[in-house]
Design a protein that fits this description.
The chain is of the alpha/beta class and about 450 residues long. It is built from 17 helices and 16 strands. The strands form 3 sheets. An 11-stranded mixed beta sheet has the order 12-11-10-9-8-7-6-13-14-15-16, covered by helices on one side. Helix 12 (about 295-310) links the parallel strand 11 (about 280-285) and strand 12. It is globular, with a radius of gyration of 24 Å.
């Protein structure tokens, strides 16, 4: 059959002698050197030319998706992949906010904290029933992820999270469904009693540090002004020693990036057995303004160097390099997802303020969610409608904006939601190559 180049190819120049060819649909790289490199720099390059000049290379390109049959609708393939993954019935993720109160008040937090808010007995019982209804009513369900968010989800642990988790453990055994427990927490309240209880199940945490001790304590402190760095890092060490998995999210801005070397020194002190349970995720605070192109490149190189060093220590590390927003779709994009707030309001995304105006439904006492109108179906139709996404060479990695953003910006159907330039896209691909092949 006649062949064409995939629209998801990117050719990245490494040097005059070397180039990298990447295909976002297959997530494959091909190093081009010597004559092959020269061949791709030829203006009149075509599949037929490559087949005539180098049949072996032609076969590699076809085998790895760099060439596809001329009749292939690649945009439809991406759309089908997104819909298949986001509508999968074998997995359900439930977020629960035990409270919207928090032990800290970080300057960049997008949430409006509500002092004294707390999930009551009626909502707790309804949440238990929802978990049972979900497990018993979905024959294809294989795994259930129960995640606690907030606010600080370890507040009121014994009266809210603990009974829900105990019920979920019993139900997962009853219905033969895998159960994973997760907490997005600042880690300050993660004491020995909680760690002991959670050791009976598969548990993980996302815990955040905001730079070294000095920088962190300026951002994440108690109402009395006391810093939290020492206690949080001590609790992280205790959890790792028990084999609990932790994603250590390191929030940074351009002004504090150099302080992260102090965190890496602390990481060095973690025993080799504990390191396998740790993963570091470097995330730039979204309010941090961008600098010049040169400053941004320097910042990117520094973060990449930290990530590479962590990998050399045997610790997983990620930056934007691990972008795979289609195959590893955000829970908020999936049909089988819900967030139950402390008051029984239900939401479809964690990255928004939990107000009545933003809710997508309510939890009834019988454990069913009463969704507002067509909120679920409208949400599931919102993604990948942007014509710019259909033309983008990393569409199979990015998938366009999340469904929440597509709903909020319905008129943005011709421009990249992320405002990526060609250079931004190249950097994403370079970083993905680094993540997949270097310092692992």
């Amino acid at each position: 059959p006649a062949m064409k180049f995939s629209q998801y190819n990117s050719l990245l120049y490494v040097s005059d002698e070397k180039s990298l060819l990447y295909n976002a649909m297959t997530d494959k790289f091909l190093a081009l050197t010597g004559n092959n490199n020269s061949l791709f720099k030829t203006a009149a390059i075509s599949p037929a030319t490559i087949k005539d000049v180098n049949p072996e290379l032609f076969g590699q390109l076809c085998e790895n998706g760099f060439m596809v049959e001329d009749s292939t609708d690649e945009t439809a393939l991406v759309e089908n992949l997104i819909e298949t993954i986001d509508n999968s019935d074998d997995f359900f993720q439930l977020h629960i906010n035990p409270t919207l109160d928090c032990t800290c008040r970080c300057w960049y937090c997008y949430e409006t904290h509500l002092k004294g808010s707390r999930m009551g007995p009626t909502t707790i019982e309804a949440a238990k029933r929802f978990i049972e209804n979900t497990m018993s009513g979905n024959p294809d369900l294989k795994s259930f992820d129960l995640s606690f968010f907030g606010g600080e989800p370890l507040m009121y642990f014994n009266s809210v999270a603990r009974p829900i988790i105990s019920s979920a453990i019993a139900l997962s055994g009853k219905y033969g469904i895998g159960l994973h427990i997760h907490f997005t927490t600042n880690g300050y309240l993660l004491n020995d009693e909680i760690l002991e209880f959670l050791s009976q199940t598969d548990v993980s945490y996302q815990i955040t540090l905001d730079g070294n001790r000095e920088q962190h304590n300026r951002t994440r402190f108690l109402p009395n002004g006391k810093g939290t760095f020492d206690r949080i890092t001590s609790n992280i060490t205790k959890a790792l020693a028990r084999g609990h998995r932790i994603v250590l999210r390191i929030n940074y801005t351009a002004s504090i990036v150099d302080s992260l070397k102090d965190i890496m020194r602390l990481v060095e002190c973690i025993g080799s057995e504990s390191r396998k349970y740790l993963r570091i995720d470097f995330q730039r605070v979204w309010q941090d303004p961008k600098g010049s192109d040169e400053e941004e490149e320097t910042l990117r190189e520094k973060i990449s160097a930290y990530a590479s060093y962590a990998k050399r220590l045997g610790i997983g590390a990620s930056t934007r390099a691990c972008m795979d927003a289609v195959r590893s779709s955000c829970y908020g994009n999936r049909r089988n997802y819900a967030l139950i707030n402390y008051n029984g309001d239900v939401f479809s995304c964690t990255a928004r303020d939990f107000t009545e105006a933003n809710r997508a439904g309510v939890l009834s006492e019988n454990g069913n969610i009463e969704w507002t109108g067509d909120s679920i179906e409208n949400r599931m139709k919102a993604r990948f409608r942007n014509s710019a996404c259909h033309k983008c060479r990393i569409a199979p990695l990015c998938g366009g904006a999340c469904r929440q953003r597509c709903i909020e910006e319905p008129d943005n159907l011709t421009e990249c939601y992320h405002r990526y330039s060609d250079k931004d896209i190249d950097n994403i691909i370079y970083d993905r190559f680094d993540y997949m092949f270097l310092n692992t």
